UniProtKB/TrEMBL annotation:
Matching Pfam families: LacI (PF00356), Peripla_BP_3 (PF13377)
Biased composition regions of type Basic and acidic residues, renumbered to the chain: 310-319
Domain HTH lacI-type: start-end pairs: 2-56
Organism field: Streptomyces tsukubensis
Protein name as annotated: Transcriptional regulator
Keyword NAD: no
SUPFAM superfamilies listed in its UniProt record: lambda repressor-like DNA-binding domains, Periplasmic binding protein-like I
SMART domains linked to this entry: HTH_LACI (SM00354)
Gene3D superfamilies in the record: 3.40.50.2300, lambda repressor-like DNA-binding domains
Entry GO MF terms: DNA-binding transcription factor activity; transcription cis-regulatory region binding
Length: 351
C-alpha cells in the first residue's frame, strides 16, 4: 500500500507538502495541489482522517487488536478486553475491538480509518510485522508483549523468562529431579510468539542454573491429541516426571490427564502453572505465577495514550525518532503457593 512518501516522490514534492495539502495548514499553490492529487489518485493512497492528518481532532478511542481464529475461545482474550476497556474508560477513552486474523492488514485498516487515536496490540511476535507497519503509518501503538526490538514501540509484559526460571529453580530446591516444561501450543511456538519463546528460554536457563535437565514438551491445540501426549509423558517408568511446569492454559486438562494415568496431584505429580488467570478455579489450588491482567492493561493503555499525545505534539515534518525512545515495562513474576508444598514426596526422591 502506498505511503505519504510514495505520493511525495511521484508528485515531486516533500512529504510535508503532501501533509499540508491534506490538512490545509499552509497555503499551497494550485499547481502543487493538482500534482499531489494526481499522485494520490494514481497510487490509490488513502490519507488518515485523524492524528497526523487532522491533528486537532480526537476520537477518544483506543483500538485493541486481538487476532483470533473463528470459533476459537480463549478466556485470556476476554479478560484482557474487559480490563483494557476499563483502563481506557478511566482515562476518558472508549475501546474499539478488532479481531482480524490478518494481523497487519487488519491493523492497517484501523490505522487508516481514523476511527482510533492509538492501538493496543496483543499476540505479539518476537519480530512482529505490525511494529514496522504502525511506524510507517505514524500510528501510535503500544504492545502487550515484549518484542526483540524493545525500543521500537512502547510495550509491557510479564517477565516470562524469569517466571519459568523461577519455577524450575524452586522445584529443584524442593527435591524434584525429573522435570518437564509444557510449553504453549506448537502453533504459538512456530509463530515465534514472544511469551512462548521467552518461557521456553527461561526454562532452559533455570535448568542450567540448577544443574538439572528439564525436558521441553510442546502442547498441541487439539484436546484428544493433547491427552495422548500427556498420557505418553506420564506413563509408568523410571523417567516419569515428578513435576510439570505448565505454560499452557488448560491446567485442568493436565490434572485430568494425570488422574487418568493413575497419578494424584500433588502427591504423585507436582504441577506449577505459569500465566494462570487471577481467580481461575482450575489453577487456584496449584502453585502458580498469575498473569497480572489488570496491571498489564493499565500500563499498556497509559503507554498508548502517551504515544498518541506525543504524536499530536510532534511537528508534522519531524520524523519519528528510532528505537531507544520507546518505553518498556517488564513486570516481575511472583510464585504463589498452592494447597500443598512444592516439595517432592519420598517416592519422588527415591527415584
Amino acid at each position: 500500500m502506498a505511503t505519504i512518501r510514495d505520493v511525495a516522490r511521484r508528485a515531486g514534492v516533500a512529504p510535508s507538502t503532501v501533509s499540508y495539502v491534506f490538512n490545509g495548514s499552509r497555503t499551497i499553490s494550485e499547481e502543487t495541489r493538482r500534482r499531489v492529487q494526481e499522485a494520490v489518485d494514481a497510487l490509490g493512497y488513502h490519507p488518515r482522517a485523524s492524528a497526523r492528518t487532522l491533528r486537532s481532532s480526537r476520537t477518544q478511542v483506543i483500538a485493541l487488536a486481538v487476532p483470533r481464529a473463528a470459533g476459537l475461545q480463549r478466556s485470556v482474550d476476554g479478560r484482557f478486553a474487559i480490563d483494557v476497556s476499563d483502563a481506557a474508560n478511566a482515562l476518558g477513552y472508549d475501546l474499539l475491538l478488532t479481531t482480524s486474523q490478518e494481523k497487519t492488514e487488519g491493523l492497517r485498516r484501523v490505522a487508516l480509518s481514523g476511527l482510533a487515536d492509538a492501538a493496543v496490540l496483543m499476540a505479539v511476535d518476537l519480530e512482529d510485522a505490525r511494529i514496522g507497519l504502525v511506524r510507517e503509518l505514524s500510528f501510535p501503538a503500544a504492545l502487550i508483549g515484549r518484542p526483540t526490538d524493545e525500543g521500537a514501540l512502547p510495550w509491557t509484559d510479564l517477565d516470562w523468562e524469569a517466571a519459568a526460571a523461577l519455577a524450575v529453580r524452586e522445584l529443584v530446591a524442593a527435591g524434584h529431579r525429573d522435570l518437564v516444561y509444557l510449553s504453549p501450543v506448537e502453533a504459538e511456538v512456530a509463530a515465534r510468539r514472544s511469551y512462548a519463546l521467552r518461557g521456553i528460554a527461561g526454562a532452559g536457563a533455570g535448568a542450567r542454573e540448577s544443574g538439572r535437565r528439564v525436558e521441553i514438551v510442546r502442547a498441541v491445540a487439539e484436546p484428544a491429541a493433547m491427552t495422548r501426549r500427556l498420557h505418553a509423558l506420564l506413563r509408568p517408568g523410571p523417567d516419569r516426571p515428578t513435576a510439570l511446569v505448565v505454560q499452557h492454559p488448560s491446567a485442568d486438562h493436565v490434572v485430568a490427564s494425570a488422574a487418568a494415568a493413575g497419578l494424584r496431584v500433588p502427591e504423585d505429580l507436582t504441577v506449577v502453572v505459569l500465566g494462570a488467570l487471577p481467580g481461575d478455579a482450575a489453577s487456584r489450588s496449584l502453585p502458580r505465577v498469575e498473569l497480572p491482567v489488570e496491571r498489564l492493561s493499565k500500563e499498556v493503555v497509559r503507554l498508548a495514550v502517551a504515544a498518541a499525545d506525543a504524536a499530536r505534539e510532534r511537528p508534522e515534518n519531524e520524523p519519528r525518532q528510532p528505537g531507544p525512545s520507546a518505553t518498556g515495562v517488564l513486570l516481575s513474576p511472583v510464585l504463589l503457593p498452592g494447597d500443598a508444598p512444592l516439595s517432592a514426596s519420598r517416592t519422588h526422591q527415591a527415584r
